[in-house]
Amino acid sequence: MNILSLVRQNIINLKPYASARHEFEGKASVFLDANENPFGSPLPGEKAYNRYPDPLQWQLKFQLAKIKGVPAENIFIGNGSDEAIDLAFRIFCEPATDNVIICPPTYGMYEVCAGINNVEVIKVPLTPAFQPDAERILTAANKHTKLLFICSPNNPTANSMARQTVLELLQKFNGLIIVDEAYINFSKQQGFIGELTSYSNLMVMQTLSKAWGLAGLRLGLAYASLDIINLFNKVKPPYNISQAAQEMASAAIPNLPIVNDWIQEVVEERALLAQVLGSFAFVEKVYDSDANFLLVKVKDPATLYDYLASNGIVVRNRSREPLCEGCIRITIGTADENLQLIQRLNDYE
Ligand SMILES: *Cc1c(COP(=O)(O)O)cnc(C)c1O
């Protein structure tokens, strides 16, 4: 499949912004090209941010390449995954003409980005087992369908999408499939990074916001073919990732072992919490989770939500989402936080 045939004509024609840092590639010691402040930054300490950052974040990408097994040039870094999602719409979807397919219940940003970009959303709900329905997806797609979002593990249902179904879609769907793996670190399932070289219509998204504990830095990762990554680099704002975020993330990457310990702890706490929650009379079902949260079906979600909130514990009421009637979503906290939750629930009813 030729992915470039899906791209909007104005994006193909676009002459990208050439930044000062981009134009000059040699070695120099006097930078009078970018209208920066030459003195420094009015910050305590030595740290200065008066220079524009590397537009393509090469140092961070080389570090990520090593731990992810993806060449640095096949990585895109966005100001959160949300930026990467928005760019996908802007690159591929002609407003008021093209459409995308999502499989509710799923992450809300896909539909919000579609709305912002005036792109139609075709909803093909997950099956009652929370799996994508390949046949219905392929039937729903038409010549204006550019993107298919598959969130795996899915938010808010917490389960992974069946590998065989996603592979079938990669073979048959005539558009770009974005597999959103924001929660992949918590999953027993293998992700789709290994399929990138086999499918030109695959983009895998991950984030440093969840397992990595860097939500405040806003760093989303996307992996795809060079053709696709080049388009993202062409359309993104030139300096979309701040110097501070690049430096902080670079300093965090070597601490992967700490992150892996946290992931293991979350997975253990998830099993404990699921077991305890399942023992409450007001809990009807605790769904299997491959993520750092549990979807829990309860008798009266609104009352439970208010009760917990009045005790200073916030969870997410997802009961208005399709297939999630009666459900709340609970993020796995520290052992102590989970214990506080359980103690409050012991006093409920
Ligand atoms: C949390 C989350 C993200 C992460 O978004 P960022 O903008 O990178 O923080 C992406 N996808 C899903 C499904 C999520 O739940």
Protein model, in words:
- By secondary structure, the chain is of the alpha/beta class.
- Helix content is 35%, strand content 15%.
- It has 12 helices and 11 strands.
- The protein has a 7-stranded mixed β-sheet, with helices on both faces. Strands 8-9-11-10 form a 4-stranded antiparallel β-sheet, with helices on one face.
- It is globular, with a radius of gyration of 22 Å.
- 37% of the residues are buried.
- The mean pLDDT is 97.
- Bound molecules: pyridoxal-5'-phosphate.
List the helices and strands and how they pair.
Blueprint: H1 9-13, H2 20-23, H3 58-68, E1 75-78, H4 81-92, E2 99-102, H5 109-116, E3 120-123, H6 134-140, E4 145-151, H7 163-172, E5 176-180, E6 202-207, E7 220-223, H8 226-235, H9 243-252, H10 256-278, E8 283-286, E9 293-298, H11 301-310, E10 316-317, E11 327-331, H12 335-346
Helix pairs in contact: 4-5
The structure holds pyridoxal-5'-phosphate.
Provide a short characterization of the protein structure.
With 349 residues, the chain is α/β, with parallel strands linked by helices.
Shape: globular
The small-molecule ligands in this entry are: pyridoxal-5'-phosphate
Indicate the radius of gyration in whole angstroms.
Answer: 22 Å
Low-confidence stretches: none
| Residue-averaged pLDDT | 97
Order of helices and strands: HHHEHEHEHEHEEEHHHEEHEEH
SS field, number of helical segments:
12
The major beta sheet can be summarized as: 7 strands, mixed
Strand order of the largest sheet: 1-7-6-5-4-2-3
Give the percentage of residues in beta strands: 5-15%
Total number of beta strands: 11
| Distance linking N and C termini | 57 Å
Structural class from helices and strands? alpha/beta
Helix content: 25-40%
